[in-house]
């Protein structure tokens, strides 16, 4: 070929990249030679029947410039890019790929760094360059060309992989912590899928663990609760769907808090709380025992109130701070008083003033006030007093429990008040 191509070099330099063309000496010769460097080889091709326009020096220069620009662009890419043949021979690679090869401990540059993945979908793989160092993680994507060449792109996602691992470990730690709680916990991610739940949720909702592990949506979760009768039965399905949408909206704002009374007689406290990144947490607690205790306590109070209301003596109980805590029906009738109709607390001073205005005989009211406030002093004996309607009562002040003092007014029918009623006496 030398007579027809005097510019053809005798040897080819190593370490070069790209492609160049050598034109024939005779302008009428429609042949040319193509030199292409692909480390560590230089490929020499004789091209026949090249048109004049193809062999013009200007076009050759443009092609060479374009190839150099393309090579520089690919070398400047921060992630490895390479091409392989169908038999796994690497025919081209960029500078980022070479940088990874330089870190390889075995020094085998011919062996591909990554396993072959022909799937077009992205795949995450682990790359171990140094056994003593942590592995790197890459997302691999590939594109197959018509001539059997596969182009690969590898994006380093080690930081993302470490963050995902830390998140998984954190979730597992939370799951172990919440496993011992008696309150059912369900956390839904920003896509509305169940991301975390604890064993108590399975016990309280009677939902299968397989169903919860499949990460149902919020609507599916509440729909299954309705099917299991673990939430109040809605009157109509459409209205129920609207209510659940309202529940989700309220939980997002942290405003959802309801008490569910179930057909089984159980009572659940359900709360919805927002979490970072658009997540929502629902807490379900069985408060049946507390509700039953509260109901029993309220029933006992109501029964005690009813029993005291049938007693003819008037009772008024005051706290150590001087606030009336309780009075029965007889007391209200004696002193024409309705504590429930007032907007402020009735104090000892208010009560003594009412008693003073309602009686016509002198009485040791200052000492009564002192005793009701539990301020010490000699213990008082009962004394009599006469009301403005000439009824005679016996007043007695005593401590019933620490911090609580009782004022008792007992009717004394047929007895007239003495001119000098008994005052206080020390026992």
Note the topology.
Blueprint: E1 18-23, E2 32-38, E3 41-47, H1 57-75, E4 81-84, E5 90-93, H2 95-102, E6 123-127, E7 136-144, E8 150-156, H3 158-178, E9 184-188, E10 194-197, H4 199-205, H5 209-213, H6 218-227, H7 237-252, E11 256-261, E12 267-274, E13 280-286, H8 288-309, E14 314-319, E15 324-327, H9 329-335, H10 348-357, H11 365-372, E16 383-386, E17 392-401, E18 404-411
Antiparallel strand pairs: 1-2, 2-3, 4-5, 4-8, 6-7, 7-8, 9-10, 9-13, 11-12, 12-13, 14-15, 14-18, 16-17, 17-18
Helix pairs in contact: 10-11
Strands ordered across the widest β-sheet: 5-4-8-7-6
Q: How many separate helices?
A: 11
* Strand residue content: 25-35%
Order of helices and strands: EEEHEEHEEEHEEHHHHEEEHEEHHHEEE
- Whole-number tally of structural domains: 4
Describe this structure in words.
The chain has a 5-stranded antiparallel beta sheet, sandwiched between helices. It has a 5-stranded antiparallel beta sheet with strand order 10-9-13-12-11, sandwiched between helices. By secondary structure, the protein is α+β, with helices and mostly antiparallel strands. The chain is built from 11 helices and 18 strands. The protein folds into 4 domains: 18-75, no CATH class; 81-156; 176-290, PAS domain (Beta-Lactamase); 311-411, PAS domain (Beta-Lactamase, 2-Layer Sandwich), CATH 3.30.450.20. The protein is rod-shaped. Helix content is 31%, strand content 26%.
